[in-house]
Design brief:
Shape of chain A: globular
Strand content of chain B: 15-25%
Mean pLDDT of chain A: 90
Order of helices and strands of chain B: EEEHEEHEHHHEHEHEEHH
Helix content of chain B: 25-40%
Structural class of chain A: mainly alpha
Radius of gyration of chain B: 20 Å
Distance between the termini of chain A: 56 Å
Low-confidence stretches of chain B: none
Order of helices and strands of chain A: HHHHEHEEHHHHEHHH
Number of strands of chain B: 10
Strand order of the largest sheet of chain B: 6-7-8-3-9-10
Mean pLDDT of chain B: 88
Number of helices of chain A: 12
Oligomer: heterodimer
Radius of gyration of chain A: 20 Å
Largest sheet of chain A: 2 strands, antiparallel
Number of strands of chain A: 4
Largest interface: A-B, 26 and 35 residues
Distance between the termini of chain B: 50 Å
Shape of chain B: globular
Strand content of chain A: under 5%
Chain lengths: 310, 270
């Protein structure tokens, strides 16, 4: 039970990541790899600031701002120097590896100070006592506080994102991904929109990294590896859960649900004996299957249909 | 008013693919006029529109709209002065956004995109009336993603979007060429109506000699990057489709003669 609650909480934190990836990969249709660097960037900045005695909320927000800056740099490289989006992201991600080490001063920084989750954990413990019984199993109350906190964060982030995408600016961003030529003809610089969009996307990714670090009580230079694929897996999984959607709100909910479900599946797989070292390989294969599978199945169906006797 | 002064544009200069798309073109279009531009393939008629809309930098010359020199303005900055409809019926609208959202984006043409909700204070009633004018039942589809509509429907809406904010200049780039005949007819009748009610200086490029003969108050034929024929007033009114077709065969003959001459000369010097 405790494992389930912890898994849900981590899933929700990755839900924030999925929101960022949804924005770059789905709304902008831009393969932005910066996330592999901005996720640990958010974690590194927060860990460093917490060590230096800064309060957790500020530390988290600054971490997020760091991600936004990284995304804006990727966007600027892409639109101003006409560098391929994928390469721009790889450049910034690679640079960030060194930046993160500089910020942390080591490849791994433990977090001993109070985190953004501490008040929730303490509050839950004070209110419910050390242990709470759910469905006959006893659970540390602090885990429930953690779950509540992550639910609030992902809820607020999701609602704000949906509202934002319905503003003039947000709709212009959606139109940039949809039909950039039209937006230019309507007098909006798609260059500016792209930079802004990647900044927002990476701010969300960095927020996720910052929360993840605070939850795990450490930041690590390696923690960003495979974050893109993880986020993409969540978005794709969410899409298959919700189906082909027309509504932004549903797509956003789907991304978060996908992240939680993916985390649950991973926890189950590890419980059933999957080697944690094989996790990234399995994730990549699952994502590939989810992307290629449907069209492949369809083409097989077509071929069968063609050769079938009349 | 729209003025082009000694506009020159050469694509791929200094290479084997060098194309002199616009060779010293000077045109002055009166405010509110409706000019039809025709020309053979590669005559520079689409480049002319690109030059006005700012799709590329000019080699030489200037472009002025109502005494404002916009020659160096990037495409998006010119947009508040210029409404555009493209040949590709899907190019003018964002498929993932609803009809209302597309119209709302167009109604803020050239303005700063703010954090105000896009559809707050949307003039839905006004838009419904406009959509009803098209006569395709689009007035009931304001909240459908525009990607669900047909090419003709989307092109009609693009036309509405282009004229929604009363721009100074309206550019129509073969905007019926990719439509089926019925949709094309519909879009043309909508064009006629909107242009008549608008004060925009309209430039319409077309392949259709019938449209060229019947529409507009001025006709410009482009050939090899230059203005080949420029008629307006009574002369334009009396212009017939067959006269235009004759003009076209003449331009094509010129083309062939030049090509043959080229072949002759290059054969001798090989």
């Amino acid at each position: 039970m405790s494992l389930l609650i912890a898994t849900l909480a981590i899933g929700l934190v990755f839900g924030v990541l999925a929101l960022g990836i949804y924005l770059s990969f789905r709304v902008y249709q831009l393969p932005d790899i910066t996330a592999d660097g901005s996720f640990p960037l958010g974690a590194a900045i927060t860990a460093r600031l917490l060590r230096d005695g800064v309060d957790p909320v500020t530390a988290t927000i600054v971490g997020m701002a760091g991600g936004a800056l990284a995304g804006a740099i990727t966007g600027a490289i892409h639109v101003h120097f006409k560098v391929n989006a994928l390469l721009s992201g790889i450049l910034v991600m690679t640079a960030l590896y060194s930046v993160n080490l500089r910020i942390m001063g080591a490849s791994n920084v433990p977090i001993q100070a109070n985190t953004i989750f501490t008040p929730f954990e303490q509050g839950a413990t004070a209110w419910l006592g050390q242990e709470t019984s759910i469905l006959g199993r006893s659970v540390p109350s602090s885990d429930l506080g953690l779950l509540l906190a992550t639910t609030i964060v992902v809820g607020v982030a999701g609602i704000l994102l949906v509202l934002f995408l319905k503003t003039e600016l947000g709709a212009a961003m959606r139109a940039t991904g949809d039909n950039a030529r039209m937006l230019r003809a309507l007098g909006t610089s798609t260059d500016r929109m792209t930079i802004l969009g990647l900044a927002l996307s990476n701010a969300l990714v960095a927020l996720s990294g910052s929360l993840f670090a605070q939850m795990q009580s450490f930041a690590d230079a390696q923690m960003g590896i495979g974050v893109i694929v993880l986020g993409l897996a969540s978005v794709i999984l969410g899409q298959s859960l919700i189906g082909p959607v027309r509504s932004i709100a549903l797509a956003v909910i789907g991304a978060v649900m996908g992240a939680v479900l993916f985390r649950l599946l991973v926890a189950i797989a590890i419980r059933m004996g999957l080697d944690a070292n094989d996790l990234k390989l399995v994730t990549a294969v699952v994502v590939l299957a989810a992307i290629v599978g449907p069209t492949w199945l369809k083409s097989i169906g077509r071929k069968r249909g063609k050769h079938a006797p009349a | 008013m729209l003025r082009l002064d000694s506009v020159c544009k050469t694509f791929n200069p200094g290479t084997a693919n060098e194309v002199r798309a616009l060779a010293n073109v000077t045109i002055q279009l009166a405010p509110g006029s409706f000019t039809v531009v025709i020309g053979t393939n590669g005559s520079g008629k689409s480049t002319l529109q690109g030059a006005i809309s700012g799709a590329f930098d000019l080699d030489r010359g200037s472009i002025t709209v109502d005494d404002t020199n916009i020659t160096r303005w990037p495409e998006h900055r010119r947009a508040h002065l210029i409404g555009r409809v493209f040949q590709d019926p899907f190019a003018g609208t964002a498929p993932g956004l609803t009809v209302a959202e597309n119209l709302a984006l167009a109604s803020k043409r050239g303005k700063w995109r703010t954090l105000a909700p896009l559809l707050r204070g949307a003039r839905r009633g006004e838009w419904k009336d406009l959509l009803a004018q098209i006569g395709l039942g689009l007035e009931n589809r304001l909240d459908d993603p525009i990607g669900l509509l047909s090419g003709g429907q989307r092109q009609s809406i693009t036309l509405l979007m282009a004229t929604l904010t009363s721009p100074k200049v309206l550019l129509l780039d073969e905007h019926t060429a990719a439509l089926d005949p019925r949709s094309a007819e519909l879009v043309i009748s909508l064009t006629t109506r909107l242009v008549a009610h608008s004060s925009a200086t309209t430039v319409m490029v077309t392949h259709s000699m019938q449209q060229a003969a019947t529409l507009g108050d001025r006709l410009i034929a482009m050939h090899r990057g230059k203005v080949y024929l420029d008629v307006s007033g009574v002369e334009k009114q009396h212009l017939t489709e067959s006269e235009l077709l004759a003009l076209f065969s003449q331009m094509r003959r010129d083309d062939r003669f030049d090509d043959d001459a080229c072949a002759l000369v290059s054969a001798q010097y090989r």
